Amino acid sequence: MIVPIESLRELMFAACQAASVPEDKAGCVVGHYLSGELRGRASHGVAKFCFEAQFFSEREGPPRIVREHGALAVIDARREIGPISAAYAVDVAVDKAGALGAGVVGMINTQRYGILAQWSERITEKGFIGIAMNTSRAEATPYGGRTPFLGVNPLSFAVPTLDEPVVADMSTTLAPMGALWEARRNNGRLPVDCFVDAAGHFTDDPDIARSAVVFGEHRGFAISLLVQVLTGSLFGFPMGPEVTDTWSTGYTFIALDPSFGGQVDESAEQNSKLLHAIKGAAMRDGTPVRLPGQESKQRADHALNAGVVHLDEAVYRRLQARAAGDFASD
Q1: Which end of the chain is more exposed for a tag (fewer CB within 10 A), N or C?
Q2: How far apart are CA 305 and CA 210, in angstroms?
Q3: Are β-strands 166-170 and 155-159 bridged in parallel, bridged antiparallel, or unpaired?
Q4: What is the share, in percent, of the chain residues with pLDDT greater than 90?
Q5: Please, which residues bridge with residue 69 across strands?
Q6: CA 281 to CA 265: how far, in whole Å?
Q7: Number of Cβ within a 10 Å radius of residue 87
Q8: Buried b (16+ CB within 10 A) or exposed e, 3-42
Q9: What CA–CA distance (Å, rounded) separates 221 from 202?
Q10: What is the pTM of this model?
Q11: Which is it for strands 195-196 and 166-170: parallel, antiparallel or unpaired?
């Protein structure tokens, strides 16, 4: 169905009010999940807002730093709502990068958020290189495997340029687990060759799927393993099968100051020159090179210009229920 963006925004604010989200924080929460929807990331947009809203009332207090050493800091989010805790962690990383040249922040005990791109982008607003990543329960297996032992382990980075930043946002699996949950709710099918059953065979049946498959075969497995370490043992957080729920999931935010402690920063100009060269590269079919994040930005621009988005009818009904104070129905 086609829904006006403003209607979605109003319903999401009403849901936040029903869940007692502080008025000054509701905009952060609504804007974050709505951004995911506008960018075409349906599994991380309104549908995820509706799912996560059932936990909004479990927040215990504002996040706080519990350990820090130089450029590193560890945050106990105290079960804060995901976009609120992530915004706090990004601010800590940016402050450390401004003072020390780098900020590497780990966070745990938080509710989940949607897309990662918003956080890496936010870091580039200060002219820094931004990186955001997190783990999850052991729900992913390498190509050919049948035992899940890694998280979906999404990763985002943003690089400043003289214009808009270049932003990549991807899971290290061929499809996000959100696709599985939505398929189960809506009696849908899974993307082809992205999930496997208990025997390790590909399946598009969400009821028998047990694991998401890591992209890129052995190379993708290596990247996922790196993300696991950077969101786990680097800060003393659980990893693999030890990640049992939302509260034991690790998150990492990194801000890097390319000016290297006071030198004239020419990195944005250098990055822009590189992009110019990339855009001039020849593709076999004659189309220009598609930069990371380019397609999702175009989707968002188109949706904002049109003032509407396409939304699954079941998701819209779920959002209406949340706005009415019903956080249990699905």
Answers
A1: N
A2: 40
A3: antiparallel
A4: 85
A5: 72
A6: 27
A7: 19
A8: bebeebeebbbbbbebbebeeebbebbbebbbbbbbbbbb
A9: 18
A10: 0.94
A11: unpaired
